[in-house]
Amino acid sequence: HKRPMVQREIMDKLPVVILLGPPGAGKGTQAERLVKGFGLSHVSTGEIFRAELKNATPLGEKIKKVMATGGLVSDDIVLEVVESYIKKNADSNFLFDGFPRTVPQAEGLDKILASAFRDLTAVVYVNVPDAEVVRRLSGRRSCKSCGSIHNVATGPFPSEGGKCSRCGGDIVERADDKESVVKERLSVYRMQTAPLIDYYSLIAPKKFIETDGSAPIDEVYGAIKAAVKNRLAVGR
């Protein structure tokens, strides 16, 4: 029994962080800073799916069949993909952004980590009120020419003529940024993903970190950085 214990000691030193929050919370920005600040490996399930499809793996074939029928990839397949990724990158640390999306996925991840002698370091929840999410996302505009994103609510945004300040192209509102669509996305989030907040705050209260995502970006990251540092210092 000594070997598993030694392996557990080694693996427990590698951070595992989950980043949660509604659409428009600024998770992408905070993920970039966490990756740089703590040397984390950013895990995107979408990118893993694309790699499995590209390499035509058995998992990729499963995903391909589901997509061909227009269905949603089940929790079981998502977890199978994540487990495969963790096994292939056993010596890496992880920042999960956009996963888990549901409580069954969270429960499955707990089992996967345990079987790999890993444990969660922290669950970071970037909390933003619905009204602020709608304001941010419905204010987004994109350039038809260069694709750069502008925002009438948070900036930067060209002041004259609705032209891109980078290339001079036309600025347009994307269909998925319309207020009605944003509210629908929030509704889906509240039904499927928000229960994760209750799940993690109950089963791992000492690891659960909630921060006010409506604060300035630097302030949000400062709070997250301090809390994650504390988690790494006290251990699991």
Question: What keyword list fits this structure?
Answer:
236 residues; alpha/beta; 5-stranded parallel sheet; 3-stranded antiparallel sheet; 13% strand; globular; disordered N terminus
Strand order of the largest sheet: 2-3-1-4-8
Give the rounded overall mean pLDDT: 85
Portion in strands = 5-15%
Evaluate the radius of gyration.
20 Å
- Count of β-strands: 8
- Helix and strand element order: HEHEHHHEHEHEEEHHEH
Our count of helices gives 10
For the termini, the CA-CA separation is: 21 Å
Largest sheet, described in full? 5 strands, parallel
Portion in helices: 40-55%
Structural class: alpha/beta
Rough shape?
A: globular
Low-pLDDT segments? 1-11
